[in-house]
């Protein structure tokens, strides 16, 4: 049976939906689908509220929000619920930033972008029901990795996934503008989810001038207060890839002025352990004129990225086999 192009599948579509699900997962997934399909919210407008969710463990805390594991009462679907107090947002003068984040993130649907499933508010709070990324911030993993850095296979895979997410953003006229390991989450399947669209901008073709983003990741055109476009994200991807491989961003300095100077002079040092392929990629992204930076599609097809990603897939297979053997013994 082929699935007709209706927006929401119904019970009749279940056999086709389930055809690729492994035998051992058939029963629980079928039950989950049936529960979701019988929900009042399925396929039609629904006013979600905090009453629809049971709140569970605390997952983390940000400047303006606390994040909890939460379970939708009817389907038992798990989400990460970010709860923000309106009063705190007002005091911090970030209401517009949060609304922009909600507006942009709810439109973006990509495997490497954290999904905002729904959102709602009550008198005092705003709730964001987010997809779960159970391994948390990538930053934490970078800090706990040997020598505070990732090996080349891992760095290449992550660089590919971020390039893929950014490419999707740019095709939808969105610039992220605040890329850094703190704004990227990791899932239990070693996949990245780009989060934190608080600084991102919807850009129907015009160049922008707002100074935002983190100092170490600022591109030269933003340091100099010039207008900029979506190629700022390629610069940030270059910094991110360097930080993955080296453990710290390339223009780090003890003072802000020191960092600004290094960015302007493009003063970058490549440690000897970096391969020529990775250096070529980073140098292609960290070019001063935005239009000279290699494209995100070229990042995804870069020979270093492709070879190293294949190695990462093997590493993960070996890790998986190791886990299976441990369970058997
Ligand atoms: N979708 C999610 N899945 C799992 N854990 C999450 C998720 N979202 C957030 N967290 C955890 O909660 C913490 C706080 O998230 P939050 O988005 O509020 O922080 P933040 O991005 O640092 O915010 P801010 O920019 O306000 O400081 C994160 O560092 C992460 O550990």
Automatic annotation (TrEMBL):
Broadest EC class assigned to this enzyme: transferase
InterPro entries attached to this UniProt entry: Aur-like, Kinase-like_dom_sf, Prot_kinase_dom, Protein_kinase_ATP_BS, Ser/Thr_kinase_AS
Stretches the record annotates as Disordered: 1-23
Segments forming domain Protein kinase: 53-305
Listed GO CC annotations: chromosome passenger complex; kinetochore; meiotic spindle midzone; midbody
Biased amino acid composition, Basic residues: 1-11
GO molecular function: ATP binding; protein serine/threonine kinase activity
Name of the protein in question: Aurora kinase
Organism: Drosophila ananassae
Gene from which this protein is expressed: Dana\GF14057
